[in-house]
Amino acid sequence: MGTAPRRSSVSPSRAQSRRSLSVRAAKTENGPTIAIAGVTGAVGQEFLRVITERKFPYSNIKMLASARSAGRQYEFEGETYTVEELTEDSFKGVDIALFSAGGSISKKYAAVASAAGATVVDNSSAFRMTEGVPLVIPEVNPEAMAGYRAGGGGIIANPNCSTIIALVAVAPLHRLAGVKRMVVSTYQAASGAGQAAMEELELQTREVLDGKPVTQNIFPFQYAFNVFSHNSPMTDNGYNEEEMKMVKETHKILGTSDIRVTATCIRVPVMRAHAESINLEFERDISEEEALRALAAAPGIQVADDRAANWFPTPLSVSHLDDVFVGRVRRDYSRDDARGLNLWVCGDQVKKGAALNAIQIAELLL
């Protein structure tokens, strides 16, 4: 297969271990004031870890949540913070507001935060398809948020986790050979449905192994040892909302509706990190070697494609890691030409699919 790189420098054992957090504080007098709406949730907590890992500069952090969580205390970078109730008065003096409290909360408070001067990075679906609101993956379309700055107001939308993970891998190939059609099948972890879903998967696994009836509070199906269609609502065309998000968001992020996109989104009993099987049709011939070189050179990607060892990315091996991992890069042999490729892509849903992407957006605001 030529000299194109095929294997990531991250070994399976290293990839399975959690990245250690830096002990160096990012707090600085010259940094922006940050508010985190939904700090008690899985993504809210990941915001804090990513801020530490990337040494994101800040002068103060306001931790916001519902009235039920107000008063809870967190130790962060050597200081004790008390969670405040999220209200319309929460954003005075805030430069960057990171939202991950659900779409209804974003719809209620994001405009309030923006009017108070905070630049909002919203992790919900509330504004993704709103005209004039940038939908940004920093490795793919940072130009979409040109002119935005910390403390300048405005809303920037964080894409759906599955879309982020897919397009980090697809965008370099689109720039290389022009994608005409994308067929995606996703294998989505419990983390995408929140901390309660992760806890229920763990509980059900124990119950099944112990021969007990399973507890079903989050999904209408047994999750442990099972797979089922993504739990988002069905639409009139037979696709669920998660699948249609991938279609619409891909068009907005890549700046064209000419790419034909179809998706099938499935929940699998994996705790954290999504996997995706992607089939691409291109405008011109593209070889496996070309594709591998483009992927290896692209930011935010690690190639893990060792055919001889049958070693490719897995959700477990990429959990808690920053990059999107790509493997199983191969010609589509159902075609008579060289304009089709298959990819296998894995990425941490909580991290790159949510918190990290939002913090990277925030970094571009500084």
TrEMBL record:
Entry keyword Endoplasmic reticulum: no
Catalytic reaction equation(s): L-aspartate 4-semialdehyde + phosphate + NADP(+) = 4-phospho-L-aspartate + NADPH + H(+)
UniProt cross-references to Gene3D superfamilies, sorted A to Z: Dihydrodipicolinate Reductase, domain 2 (3.30.360.10), NAD(P)-binding Rossmann-like Domain (3.40.50.720)
Signal peptide segment: none
Record: active site: C161, H274
Keywords: Amino-acid biosynthesis, Diaminopimelate biosynthesis, Lysine biosynthesis, Methionine biosynthesis, NADP, Oxidoreductase, Threonine biosynthesis
Top EC class for this record: oxidoreductase
Occurrences of domain Semialdehyde dehydrogenase NAD-binding (ranges): 33-148
Pfam families linked: Semialdhyde_dh (PF01118), Semialdhyde_dhC (PF02774)
Biological pathway: Amino-acid biosynthesis; L-methionine biosynthesis via de novo pathway; L-homoserine from L-aspartate: step 2/3; Amino-acid biosynthesis; L-threonine biosynthesis; L-threonine from L-aspartate: step 2/5
Stretches for region Disordered: 1-24
One GO-annotated biological process of the protein: isoleucine biosynthetic process
GO MF terms, alphabetically ordered: aspartate-semialdehyde dehydrogenase activity; NAD binding; NADP binding; protein dimerization activity
Composition bias type Low complexity, residue spans: 1-20
Top-level taxon of origin: Eukaryota
InterPro entries (alphabetical): Asp_semialdehyde_DH (IPR012080), Asp_semialdehyde_DH_beta (IPR005986), NAD(P)-bd_dom_sf (IPR036291), Semialdehyde_DH_NAD-bd (IPR000534), Semialdhyde_DH_dimer_dom (IPR012280)
EC number: 1.2.1.11
HAMAP family named among the record's database cross-references: ASADH
Annotated family: Belongs to the aspartate-semialdehyde dehydrogenase family.
Subunit text: Homodimer.
Protein name (Swiss-Prot/TrEMBL): aspartate-semialdehyde dehydrogenase
Organism: Auxenochlorella protothecoides
Taxonomic lineage of the native organism: Eukaryota, Viridiplantae, Chlorophyta, core chlorophytes, Trebouxiophyceae
